[in-house]
Amino acid sequence: MQNPATAKNASPPAFDPWLLWIAFRKHWGWVLPMGFLFASAAGLAVWSQFVPEFEATHIMEANRDYVLAQSLHNTSRDLARSERQLITNALVLDPVLADPALKKAPSLSNPLTAERQIRKRLSIGNAGTDNLLTISYRDTDKVMAAAVCNAVAESYLQVRRRFDDERMGNVEAWLVQPIEQWKRNVESLRANLAELTKSANGYDPFKESSPRERDASQMVQVRSELSNIEAEKTVTRGRINALQSQADNPSEEKLPPLNPRDIDYLVAEDSQVQKAKLALEDVKTKIRNIEREERQELFADRYARLKEDVPRLEEDIRNAEVAARPQVISTLQGLVAEREALKRAEQIEEFQLQLDELDIRQAALQKEYEVEKSRLEKQGGETAEIFFAREDYEQAAEILSQLNNRLATLRTERGRGSSVSTMAAAKVPSWPIEEIPFKKVIMAGGAAFLLPFALALLLEFRMKRLTHVGGIEAQNLAPVLGEIARIPGGARSTQGHRLFEESIDALRANLLFKLEGARTIAVTSAMSSEGKSSVASQLAISLAKTSQTTVLLIDADLRSPDQHDLFGLPNEPGLCKLLGGQSKLSDCIDKSLGDLVHVIPAGRLHANPHNLLTKSKMEKLFADLESEYRYIVVDTAPVLPASETLAATSACDATLLCAMRDISRTDHVKRTQNRLLASGTNVIGVVFSGVPSSDYAYRYGDYHYTTANLPPPH
Question: Domain 469-700 maps to which CATH number in 3.30.460.10, 3.40.640.10, 3.40.50.300, 3.90.1700.10?
Fold first, then answer.
């Protein structure tokens, strides 16, 4: 079996989970009633202050319809994610907050908190599918909840429509100039064709084609493809020019709106703002210290100055925030501009790749066109020249036609409306979000119910009871000589009796190694109910069995003796009369238990214990008894409430300090050891009692042995 004296535990943690059970077991008598009382009060308070809120929802959908060209519309696949920043931006919310009719809403009635409230109560979702967008608003007035919700949705649609119009307007503006250039080119080619035809053939070139032209079907097809490519190149160049113009004129670029939360966060992190906040917190800390120590009158002038400094420092914080805001906005705008520039550069690069692909296709078709043109020139002479002039004219005219069609398509699609449209406007809700605040009541009641338990836990944490032997070892106390299993409560607990006796024997074995000739052993504790009397009586029996000699047990707890009750002996005449000179030593020793253990009970106290129990009297008593007893065990009173114990322990050769699991407090045990050492007591170790039998068996094992023809232990 493992030696208890050498068993080592890790240092106890800062918080021992075992405290939860200890706190409940020791304080449930007041924790439960107060918990129910607090829970009822908290639930009633939440119920009485509850005001039902109504939520109105405006549903929108992505407008994916198109008239002629779907590619002109840039509609996000996830509306809620892409439009959230715009909806919560000041561009959308400021017109809503400025509407006098909406200031009747309870949540927007206070101008100082209206912006914060509208952002807090506004929620954006997707209604279960990415192409739907929901804007919801909560308010205690159900009519105003619907009004504010619809106002936010309408303001958002106006801003979105304006952004879409500006985007398509920029493309339209860049198509006008290429169309004018191609108009002039077509007119020049038409005049050239008319002149060549009249001089060579004398007929109108815009009437029926000649037989030779009907044979040039392959060239017509190539020319058509070249026209399409040229039109696409013109549109692509227009897009590149539009993006390049934004890059060349950053001051005229319309950047995406900034997120107010980002602005507020960076303003709060500004060095001057932080400095002002630290100054305010320092002043408030000084005020709290004065108030906590209740020295307002003693430091009245300083306290008054500190109170006056608070509004000034709060004003400094506001001024610092106002001063920092322009710089923060400028910084954020710079970051947004850089992000937009990178995005624009990626778009330009993508369009340039498209333009390069068109150039490659155009070069291949142009080469094929030139080969066919050379062949026809060899066959037709002057007529071929006219034919090619007609081809150039028709190609330019076709490019112009495609550009005009693209411009007409763009203008037609602009009339389609915004990329987002209303599907269902918000209606006045019929029912509140929750009629009865069950969740809030349960949460408040639960928190209030746990409050007394938290107080009990805090109390136990501050008391720092010893819950395991590691707590003793961590306090640099005397070494632990033994852990004593809890005394079993029932007669049937054979294992419990066996483990208890085994733990006493282990203590006795460790004690004999420590005694080194000592014969008088005191057993004491810091406070009462810490197991010292049980340890003293059982230790005396164990020593007697081992040494095969009679052991004397003295009950020196004159205030509250226990040994006569433990053994069923009379309490007279006892130690009190012996020390008081009223009885002889031989009359005070009770030998009725046989030759194993003799007992001197405490007797009845009739005088001040400090006058009876002195070091000199105890030393004289031990000197008279040493010739008759090899070991003398003294059960003393607790040290802290009964200081006369120090006289008895200082007269003994060795002293055991008892501590009870979940009962003894760390500070009490430490203070007791210090008092014992200061009095000259030889504290050889600590005994840790009250260990559950299961824990003792787990730590040290249950190595059972059998004996023949012996009754079970009592």
Answer: 3.40.50.300
